[in-house]
Amino acid sequence: MSVNNKVKVIITNKQKTVKIPTGIRMLVRRCCNAVLQLEKFEGPAEVSVTFTDNKGIKVLNKQYREKDIETDVLSFPMGENGVYDKDMETGAKILGDIVISIEKAKDQAELYGHSLQREVGYLTAHSVLHLLGYDHMENLEKVRMREKEELIMEQLGLSASSSYIIDEDKA
Asked: pLDDT for 11-67, tens place per residue?
C-alpha cells in the first residue's frame, strides 16, 4: 500500500547539449515517488525538476552558493522542518526544485562506469532527500543519506556498480 497519494513531478529541459534518453522522465518520477514512499511522506506533493547543462548549473551554483564551478545537481527546498507551502488548487505540498546538469551526469556516469539512468536516478533520489530536509554536512547524516539513496537505487533496479567511488571533495 502506498503512503503517498500523488506526486506531481514537473520536468523541464533547458539545455540542448545532451539528448534526454527515452525513459529518463519516467525514471525521475519513479525516483521521486520511491523517496517519498521510503520516507512515509503523507499526502500529495509537488516537485520541479529541471535539466540544464554545465554552463547553466554553474550560473546557478555561483548565484545561490557562491561557488563558481559546475556541479551535478542543486536542490532548492521550499519547506522547513516539515512545513511546506501548498498549491491552493491541488492541496499538494510544494517540496521544491531540483536542477540536474544532464551534461555533468553523463560525464559522471562514464567516469563511474554505469548508465546515465543510474546517475540521473541517484541524483534525483539525493536531491529529493535534500528537499525533505536531509543534509550531508555531518558524517552520520552523510551515511544515512547514502544508505537511503542506495536502497532506492536497488528498489528501482539501478544497483551501484562496484566502480562507484565517493569523491570526498565533491560530497
From this structure: 999 999 999 999 999 999 999 999 999 999 989 999 999 999 999 999 999 999 999
pLDDT digits (tens, 9 = 90+) for 53-69: 999 999 999 999 999 99
Q: At the topology level of CATH, where does 7-155 sit?
A: Collagenase (Catalytic Domain) (3.40.390)
Count the Cβ atoms, other than its own, within 10 Å of residue 79.
Answer: 16
Q: Which of 171, 87, 96, 105 lies closest to 135 in space, CA to CA?
A: 171
| Domain ranges for the chain | 7-155
At a CB cut-off of 8 Å and minimum separation 6, what does 14 contact?
50, 51, 52, 56
DSSP structure string for 68-124: -S--SEEEEE--BTTB-EE-TTT--EEEEEEEEEHHHHHHHHHHHTS-HHHHHHHHH
The DSSP code for 132 is T
